[in-house]
Amino acid sequence: MSDSQISRRTFLAGTAGASALIVMHPFAAIAAPAQAHLRLMETTDIHVAIYPYDYYGDKPDDTLGLARTAALIKKFRAEATNAILIDNGDLIQGNPLGDYVFYEKGFKAGDIHPMMAAMNTLGYEVSTLGNHEFNYGLDFLTKSLAGANFPFVNANIIMGTTLGADPLKDKTLLPPYKIVEKTITDGAGQPQKIKIGFIGFVPPQIMVWDSANLVGKVMTRDIVQAAKAWIPQMKEEGADLIVALSHSGIDGDQQDGMENASLFVADIPGVDVVFTGHQHLVFPGPDFKNIKGADVANGTLMGKPAVMGGFWGSHMGLIDLLLERGEDGKWKILSHTAEARPIYERKDKKIVPTVADVAEVEAPVKADHEATLAYVRRPVGETAAPLHSYFALVADDPSVQIVSIAQTWYIEQMMKGTQWEKLPILSAAAPFKAGGPSGPNYYTDVPVGPVAIKNVSDLYLYPNTIRAVQVSGAQVK
Ligand code: MN
Ligand code: MG
């Protein structure tokens, strides 16, 4: 039987019969002497979702919120002899709380970003950056990260404007990796040392998505290329285990500079565990059943344990490892399980939360949460017709049209008094919230009457930068 064929049940039954440990840790693996159980937990794509609250709809939401995921983290940590919590990026942008901090509140001396304040209560070991970390610029990012009580790693964002031939000579924006020496308890109840290396990756496409913030300052390297260069060095420095924090999804078609490269990170010798994210999906799960190399029954990518913990705190990624110390003194993975645990269930078409809020995660964010509510409720206009997106994919739609009108107006203002003033303007807009994989509640619906900031944010979710491109009639045609 290969590692990946061991079921969770067999795995949990373990290799030794130490029943006293079953009482102490009913769900943890039972390890023999010279073996140890190590539990790795992931949050990913939190996007400032701390309270289980939908700021656009201005109502509670049981499908999201780190304050809920935290209940799973505490439960699974309490069950385990040895547990480590990591985050996989996309932290500081993605909801009106994030916008409130950047556009309204800003940073005063001593301020801590609410996302970091919430995470600081949970004992994270390490995190990496997501692509959305760059939406508000590098200066804001640096100030935000400064408030975290845990480190960040990333191996493929490089300072400067030219990419050298040797990735090991890159001057990276952050430390490319970190090797931590942990003391874990083995199956005999004895303390043991283990060196765990964490390395982080972001989609190289940040250079396009956030070109205004990044071009001329940093560059990106292909994820797999960076991983192949740094991982042997981590091994040389004595890492027993290498854990990839890949803020990148799972795609089966390998290409240079690919956005979703986690499958090919898993394939690199030396990589032991892969935490994925970015796609806002769940792995192991049916979305990936047709990808060669992704085993959705056993939770592996190329045979390595891997997980993607949904988004906005919807799931906690859970990887359990049974480790054994070899004759060379190095720890190796004997067996593993991977799964994504949700914070809610669907019962009779209703969302039913499976966990309650953890108050200590919300406490340091309470003032900013309330200020965000006041911010999003501020009226900025009025509409005489309802603006909803229910038919946005099949017909002309006012929720898309108003965005197009706003873009045209904005560019007109920018062109006033310039050589381009008389040019006609074409405006392209696409539906954002139109159901689909995000579920039957994923629509915009602004009723007749006052329009508040929450409605504007709902009509246009992303902090994109508007651009006008001069083209000829022939090019348009
Ligand atoms: Mn994300
Ligand atoms: Mg992302």
Explain the overall architecture.
A hairpin with a 2-residue loop joins β19 (344-347) and β20. The chain has helices at 8-13, 19-24, 66-79, 96-105, 114-119, 138-145, 206-209, 211-214, 223-236, 262-266, 359-362, 366-377, 398-415, 453-459, 473-476; strands spanning 35-43, 53-54, 59-60, 83-87, 126-128, 152-153, 157-159, 177-185, 191-201, 218-220, 241-246, 273-276, 282-283, 294-295, 300-301, 304-309, 315-325, 331-342, 344-347, 350-353, 379-383, 387-388, 445-446, 449-452. The relative contact order is 0.14. The model is unreliable at 1-27 (pLDDT under 50). The strands form 7 sheets. Strands 8, 9, 11, 12, 13, 14, 15 and 16 form an 8-stranded mixed β-sheet that branches. A 6-stranded mixed β-sheet has the order 6-5-4-1-17-18. Strands 2-3 form a two-stranded antiparallel sheet. The protein folds into 2 domains: 22-367, Purple Acid Phosphatase, chain A, domain 2 (4-Layer Sandwich), CATH 3.60.21; 378-476, no CATH class. It is an alpha/beta fold and 477 residues long. It is globular. Bound molecules: manganese (II) ion and magnesium ion. Magnesium ion is lined by residues 90, 130-132, 247, 278.
